[in-house]
Design goal:
Layout: E1 3-11, E2 14-25, E3 28-38, H1 40-54, E4 58-63, H2 65-77, H3 79-86, H4 96-109, H5 114-122, H6 126-129, H7 140-148, H8 152-170, E5 176-185, E6 212-220, E7 226-233, H9 238-259, E8 264-266, H10 274-281, E9 286-291, H11 297-300, E10 308-309, E11 318-327, E12 330-339, H12 340-373, H13 383-393, H14 399-402, E13 403-410, E14 413-420, H15 422-431, E15 435-440, H16 447-455, H17 457-467, H18 483-509, H19 516-524, E16 527-532, E17 542-546, H20 551-559
Parallel strand pairs: 5-8, 8-9
Antiparallel strand pairs: 1-2, 2-3, 4-16, 5-6, 6-7, 9-15, 10-11, 11-12, 12-15, 13-14, 16-17
Helix pairs in contact: 2-4, 2-18, 2-19, 3-4, 3-8, 4-18, 8-9, 9-10
């Protein structure tokens, strides 16, 4: 076998290079082949030319991980086929189901307006996953045309069929279902008369100056998978909406009870009303709810010596007192709980609020004193104006009970004094802090079962928290101005929540317990890289690979079986 070596020769004082191949002939080395390479600069130019020829002509980077993960859930649930079965159209372009599925993926991983979905989709693997998808054709008008086809009746039918499929295919636990409502502020103009759903009301994000849309959700306590939703006017009270939701759930109860004969609804005290419980008593659902503590002083007055510690790994530092009491016209099982951790948190919060209020009252006292002494110019403070300032300072819960403020006027000047009411603090500590009043019609349940069921309420709160994340599964902003479009927007936002909830649930089953945002953020860093080695459009020479993955990304990739979408 010949071996090669680089040899330099000086000719007329200038170096030239040759590649010589030698081989042993009769036991002695002999040059069998010589190749002239040229001068050093000629060799360098040849190497650079070769390297330039092997470099790709074009490099395309696309979002892979998060998009593929959500798309996998869409395929597993058969969502596109389900939507198309209820909202069919002739075979021309993408179907309604495909348009809504694209909107679901976008809302889940990178919320955009309809105008920006096309450019976003072009930078993802969706054109490879969806046959016939041309991102340039994903215009706002195309989305609106397809959204117009989705009626309120179609949304209800799709959701009913999807809920049935989720229970059957994913074995979603129906024993406890959590119900709650929230609202989302919008930027819909006051003069817009086409959006009756957008109304002013008490906004839970503090934007009472804007019109808002309300959303009610019924989710499983098994990873907050939505099974029912209702979009309603932003000024409708929660208790009223609860009754309307119950009337719709009554229509679906046969579907639910077919899958599970013993269903318990869990909700908070904001949904309580006599009319609501009359409806609930006539249904096949059980319930676990809570009562406003201040409306039941007799239960708050029960001494802690009569409470008994609860058993269970999730109930440390919790004790309970059980009783029977008539509530909303029917005798119910009452469980009053005392949570030492909750007590500490509430007392700490009150202490911080007292400190903040005292600093503000001290500053107000100094301003009033400067005016009395003539050291401050400007309009003289009035008694009414000072009362309004004090009211704003004491707006936090319980401050009026623990801070006694006295305002008086003498010789046209306003003065203020205050003191901390220690008796008020002691009263809160001995009666209210750390306590929750839970009630239920499940008389056969133990205290532990009732308390743990009520704690399932945090699942729906987590669902709303997910939908208010500005980066993933975000409801806002809506970019829609009519009731029909708003309902469809809310629908695919709930579908996005459904897909990521199933994703998180699947990861949990693989012993990967992370939040939705953590999972999507980590998956979002997995990119697809396409290297185009020639400029041919018809027959390009392309190499496609995924970017390097860290340990967590490898775990997510394997747990979600994303190799199915691997470009290679």
């Amino acid at each position: 076998m010949a071996s090669g070596s680089l040899t330099k020769k000086l000719i007329n004082g200038k170096p030239y290079y040759y590649l010589r191949f030698t081989r042993r002939v009769n036991g002695k080395p002999k040059v069998v082949r010589t190749i002239y390479l040229g001068k050093a600069e000629e060799i360098l130019a040849a190497v650079q030319k070769h390297r330039a020829g092997s470099r790709p002509k074009r490099i395309v980077l696309a979002e892979f991980g998060a998009v593929a993960a959500v798309w996998s859930m869409i395929q597993q649930t058969g969502l596109i086929e389900l939507i198309d079965a209820h909202v069919p159209k002739r075979a021309q372009g993408l179907s309604v189901g495909q348009y809504l599925a694209i909107a679901v993926v976008n809302r889940a991983v990178c919320p955009k307006s309809k105008r920006k979905i096309g450019p976003w989709a072009a930078k993802t693997v969706l054109p490879r996953l969806i046959k016939g998808l041309q991102p340039k054709k994903l215009t706002s008008q195309r989305f609106w045309d397809h959204m117009d086809r989705v009626s309120a009746e179609a949304i209800e039918a799709i959701e009913t069929d999807l809920a049935r499929r989720l229970v059957e295919q994913f074995d979603i636990d129906l024993n406890c279902l959590a119900f709650d409502a929230t609202n989302f502020f919008t930027f819909i103009d006051t003069r817009n008369t086409k959006a009756d759903l957008a109304q002013r009301g008490h906004n839970k994000n503090g934007r009472c100056d804007l019109r808002q849309i309300s959303l009610a959700l019924l989710v499983s306590t098994d990873f907050h998978v939505p099974l029912f939703h209702e979009t309603y006017a932003g000024n409708r009270p929660d208790a009223v909406e609860f009754r309307i939701a119950l009337s719709k759930l009554r229509q679906r109860q046969e579907e639910f009870t077919r899958q599970c004969s013993d269903i318990t609804l869990v909700f908070d005290k904001g949904n309580n009303s006599s009319e609501g419980f009359e409806m609930l008593d006539g249904m096949e659902f059980h319930f676990v709810g809570s009562l406003s503590p201040t409306q039941h002083p007799d239960l708050l007055a029960i001494p802690l010596e009569q409470f008994h510690a609860l058993r269970g790994p999730r109930l440390e530092q919790v004790s309970a007192y059980r009783a029977r009491k008539e509530v909303f016209g029917v005798e119910r099982t009452i469980v009053v709980t005392f949570n030492d951790n909750l007590y500490t948190a509430q007392l700490t919060t009150l202490t911080e609020q007292i400190g903040k209020a005292r600093r503000q009252l001290d500053a107000l006292q100094r301003r009033l004193a400067r005016h009395r002494s003539g050291k401050s110019r400007g309009k003289r403070p009035t008694r009414a104006g000072t009362q309004n300032q004090v009211k704003a300072i004491l707006k936090a819960r319980h401050l009026k009970e623990v801070l006694d403020v006295r305002i008086f006027e003498k010789d046209g000047h306003v003065s203020l004094t205050y003191r901390v009411n220690q008796r008020g603090i002691d009263r809160l500590c001995s009666t209210l802090f750390g306590k929750t009043i839970i009630f239920s019609d499940n008389a056969a349940w133990s205290n532990e079962q009732i308390v743990l069921a009520y704690r399932g309420q945090y699942r729906v709160e987590n669902a709303f928290r997910t939908m208010k994340d500005p980066h993933f599964v975000s409801f806002s902003p809506g970019f829609h101005w009519t009731d029909q479009k708003i309902r469809v927007h809310a629908f695919y936002c709930v579908l996005a929540l459904t897909m990521v909830s199933l994703l998180q649930r699947q990861l949990h089953q693989q012993d990967i317990d992370i939040s939705v945002s953590e999972a999507l953020e980590s998956l979002g860093d997995i990119k697809e890289v396409a290297l185009f080695h020639n400029r041919s459009r018809k027959n390009p020479l392309v190499t496609v690979e995924l970017t390097e993955r860290d340990e967590l990304q490898n775990q997510l990739y394997d747990a979600l079986d994303l190799k199915e979408f691997n470009p290679s």
